[in-house]
Amino acid sequence: MSTTTTAPEAQPAPARQYWMDQLRGTAILLVIINHLRLVQQFWDGAAPWAMVELSEALSPFRMPALLFASGMLLARSLRRPPRRYLAGKARALLWPWLLWSAVMLPLLGWGHAVEPLWWLNGMYTWFLAALFVYYVIGLLTRRVPPGWIALASVAVWTAMPLLGIAHDMAGPRPDKFLYYAVFFFAGAALRPLLERGPVPWPVTAGALGLATAWALYAAMIDHDPSVPVLAQAVVLLAVLGAVGVAQRLPRLRVLRPVEWLGRNSVVPYLVHLPVIEVLVRGLDLPPSPAVFALYYLATLGLCVVAVLLRPATGFLYAFPTRRRGPAGERGEQAARAGAPERTGLTGRAGPTGRAGPAEPAGRTERPGAAGRARPTEHAEPVAGREAAAARARR
């Protein structure tokens, strides 16, 4: 009597959630608009009124949406052993954070190289550092429901003024790391619900109505409303409203470019700001709507080229690793049970619970090359591609 032992079948991959790609892609487009108008205002003294108002109105929402989507990746990432988990996050987040911060030094002034807080919080790459911190917290608190971590971050943020510590979202202190933590861990907490179906229409409609009123208020006062608890609650509801809309959007052909941009969001996120700085300074054209459109289309075009070149320039977006042999890869894949490394800003969009974001959140003072301070808002996301690479090498 013989016994046949069969290997367990691989678990089928969850259905791909294209709405996550569209959400990330839309956020990236808005990030580019915001950074372009800020750079144009700084160097040329003006930017089109419509772009200024649009950026101000959407400033409370862009980064929270990206962080919410990144948080949805947490549970899947935590299936990895802790050592591999941390190594993957360091490759996909810390490496591009350091590299692209260094890229900005020639543009903004070499003096920033000796300012530790500038590296942490003074550049648009702060988002990657914040994501790494959140993933580390997620690992350390993996036995605690993420909803409790979200509530704890709100409690600490609210308690700061009571302890005599004024909120400083625009300074060198990484206060925004604490403010935005609620959105990351809320994404992790709500992931199981969003996997079951779209956000109900009543919640979507109510959230969008509230978000519209909040956006108009933000545009009117010319900065993000910062009322503790209320600001975070309203913005979180607005993000859920945006998710509800994105979940119901059909896969129209006209939206495919946005979807593609969202699948590769880490590249335009990292590339766009150096391109904008070089274009605005180098061409030095008088500000006008036509010039803004020219800069915007040129930036998008160069971001697309950067995405197409990614197979040859992957080291710019994640720290390169040595290739392992086929047998080692198969064993590693079996051990990982099909859980790819993802971090939020993605190069490939994944199924529900695996998609993540990108733009920055919160304006900060960003010194210019001449030492002047200027406001800027930063954006974000990055995800590993081990699973895709392994499939490609089979």
UniProtKB/TrEMBL annotation:
Residues 324-394 are annotated as: Disordered. Keywords: Cell membrane, Membrane, Transmembrane, Transmembrane helix. GO terms for molecular function: O-acetyltransferase activity. The keyword Repressor does not apply. Signal peptide: none annotated. It is a multi-pass membrane protein. It comes from the Bacteria. Residues 18-306 form the Acyltransferase domain. GO terms for biological process: enterobacterial common antigen biosynthetic process. Residues 334-361, 384-394 have a biased composition (Low complexity). It is found in: Cell membrane. The keyword Membrane applies. The chain crosses the membrane at residues 90-111, 123-141, 148-165, 177-194, 201-221, 227-246, 266-283, 295-319. One of its GO terms (cellular component) is plasma membrane. Belongs to the acyltransferase 3 family. This is Acyltransferase 3 domain-containing protein. It comes from Brachybacterium saurashtrense.
